[in-house]
Amino acid sequence: MLRVITAALAIGVAMAGPAFAEMHEVQMLNRGEAGPMVFEPDFLQIEPGDTVKFIATDPAHNAESIPEMAPEGAETFKGKINEEVEVTFDVEGLYGIKCLPHYAMGMVMTVAVGEVTEVPESYLEGRIPPRARERFDAQRSNL
Amino acid sequence: MRKSINVEQTVTSRRNVLRGTAFAGAAALTGGAAHASLLSRPMPKTPRMGHSRPVITVESAPDTMAEAAPADLSGLERVRQELVDPPFAPEHEQVASGPPKIVEIEMVTHERLMTVDEDSGASIWALTYNGSVPGPLIIVHQDDYVELTLRNPVESVMEHNIDFHASTGALGGGGLTHIYPGEETVLRWKATKPGCFTYHCAPGGAMIPYHVCHGMNGAIMVLPRDGLKDAEGNPLRYDSIAYFGEQDYYLPRDDNGDFKSYDTAGDDYADSLEAMATLVPTHQVFNGAVGALTGANALKAQVGETVLMVHNSCNVDSRPHLIGGHGNYVWETSFTDPPLTGVETWFVRGGCAAAAMYTFEQPGVYAYVNHNLIIAALKGATAHFVVEGPWDNALMEQVVAPRPFEG
Hints:
A: 143 residues, four-stranded mixed β-sheet, B: 3 domains, six-stranded mixed β-sheet, disordered N terminus
């Protein structure tokens, strides 16, 4: 299994081409500057091929994509609770990320990959808890 | 464009997560459109506070649900059951009149600050059904349908749902009832098994015990259609119901050892998990708070009155004992099996509700306790019945009042 991971990692690096792919770290916290249950930072502007490492600083969190809030063709991912995961974002566009157990409490973040200037029309149309929606709205202002 | 992997299926095992990773790698090799790839690495470090990984995952409804034939509910009468606060029971028939019905009930998931112990000032942002700990007692008959409307007020902080141990399928309905603040859902299920059963919130993972240990549990009693019976099939009837919810709380303390207070529901999440992981409750009480059913709040009864004591304990084992009385008939699990008789102390398995029937024979105060007396006296699990009526010297008499003696 390790071989699979290593191979995939190598491919990920190869995919990034000559540019240097960056690693961005996001902490999953019970309390941060924005209040209880946060990803910190909760907004990232990255380049295609960059990787985000979700760090389980506090227990009982996970990071997973919200399928309705991802560009077409992007792979979905779902980290386990208490697990540190690294996700390489190859498809340009806007991604909504949530912590499943704390979604209703507003534990969400936005990752903008590449040149994103506007929010897709359908982006906030799904079933989103009110506190998550408030934070998504706030994160959108970073664009 | 390749179809995304099913996000729900990726949760089940590391192998599946890795399969997703390999999948992404394969796509890259073919030179197709680029995809985000997940590199999932085992965490070498132990998560803080020693939590093991939750084995309970939230799953969606099975795929076959959409293809299922509609249930035949033709000819079923609809009735509405008005739920009431514990320790009381809703209006109900002991013997069902007529064929099975659809019993409509409504519950609202209120998050509210509650005092757990007035003496110490301990409090909790309780997570409740209809504002009470335990949630309201529901009573139906076997083969009735329970049709629950569950509402989560928009002011709520958390997601809620409900798992009925009495129901069949979809994690007890838990998989079909997840609601965010501002949402409602309706679930209908058939009460096929007679007995007393726990229901509780189960949003997934560590949130399950978190919600349960914040009060989000209660009981439903599914009576046989022809009522309760003894081992010989003779009818057993009660005059009243006393409904106990045994609640274990794990309240966080500050550095001085004082109980901490929080601004909103959910704020205590991390501290609570740490306190819960000790498995040692700071409080273990009946009906939400120390003294909720003692003193001025004691239950009232008369000599000759038959009381059915319904005891819910969602999380911890309990061993109820009625000090000065007995369990004449006790159904520890289902109403299908004949009741135990003449029981001194009975057992309520954690994750279970049980019923015990007793007819009071003497006046006075009876203490209904968890007969781990440390829990009863120091943690709070004590209730009182104050019974009125004539004393029976044939059952007990004080032959000599306490007096000094010589020698």
